[in-house]
Amino acid sequence: DELKHWVASLPKVELHLHIEGSLEPDLMMALAEKHQLELPYANIEEVKNAYDFEDLQSFLDIYYFGASVLKDEDDFYQLMWSYLLTCKEDNVVHAEIMFDPQTHTERGIGFDVFMPGFKRAMQQAQQEWGQSCLLIMSFLRHLTEQSAIETLQASTPYLNDITAVGLDSGELGNPPEKFTKVFKMAKELGLKRVAHAGEEGPPDYVWGALKALDVHRIDHGVRSIEDPVLIAFLIDSQHPLTVCPLSNTKLKVFKHMQHHNVLQLLDLGLMATINADDPSYFGGYLNDNYFAIIDHLPIEKHQLEQLVKNSFNASFMSEEHKLKWL
Ligand code: ADE
Ligand code: ZN
């Protein structure tokens, strides 16, 4: 309908996107064939049927397995290039893209393989249509802090290409405080900070991310609603929440899109934004996430406008670059 056409045509920003979560089944199958790897799927249909999740962990198991087809520089180039083409398609003029180095280094694939692949695609998109994007290096919270510290150290030759550090993977049992030291080290290196919190985990994890990790943004954060003091804090501080509607329903954080609280968070005055998370696994890129809330929530044009405006303001782009769009 009309609202959808209007949103699709607006210049938008993506702030919560895992590049490994943009691996489409056709690229996965092609890379498995290229590297002669056995997949437990006979065809694309079977891959898509496997994307039926109970919770965050059941998704993560399939997501880490899928990433195992990524082996050489060109694979990472293809992965990034395919995602950046969807940015052009969706009118995503600026994207802050997360990657999980440990998913690859644990398999013996180093920064010298994936970083050149990512950078080549990003430079090409910048040259061909002026795509703006930057990288967020995300630590896997189910691994130790020592492993995150080693990852930060291994990233040293590429620090100029990395804007921020993040924290993702299984939330429950892995509170933000576990990573206090490595986030402090990242801050001292001049890196910005984000962390997944309050997706499956309780509001206390959002407090932990704010206090122990000194984050600029909270990824997800939807469970903040359970703590009125936290909500008051977030209204006052304007820490952005990078909310991912399709992800939250696919992973059963909310039973149905009609129950999603993003509109409530926005109306309370929190700095909420709309994002895609893992588009290949959750059924859609950024426009699809906007379409899902248009279809299922009583959202009006001015609220959509606010969400889009928030995503520019919540981004790490320079103030000068923001002015160009706002
Ligand atoms: N890694 C990729 N997507 C994630 C999510 N939604 N939550 C935690 N870790 C993730
Ligand atoms: Zn995420």
From TrEMBL:
Name of the protein this chain belongs to: Adenine deaminase
Gene Ontology cellular component annotations, sorted alphabetically: cytosol
HAMAP family: Adenine_deaminase (MF_01962)
Signal peptide bounds: none
Binding site for Zn(2+): 16, 18, 196, 277
EC annotation from Swiss-Prot or TrEMBL: 3.5.4.2
Entry keywords, A to Z: Hydrolase, Metal-binding, Nucleotide metabolism, Zinc
Species this protein is from: Paraglaciecola psychrophila 170
Lineage of the species this protein comes from: Bacteria, Pseudomonadati, Pseudomonadota, Gammaproteobacteria, Alteromonadales
Function (record text): Catalyzes the hydrolytic deamination of adenine to hypoxanthine. Plays an important role in the purine salvage pathway and in nitrogen catabolism.
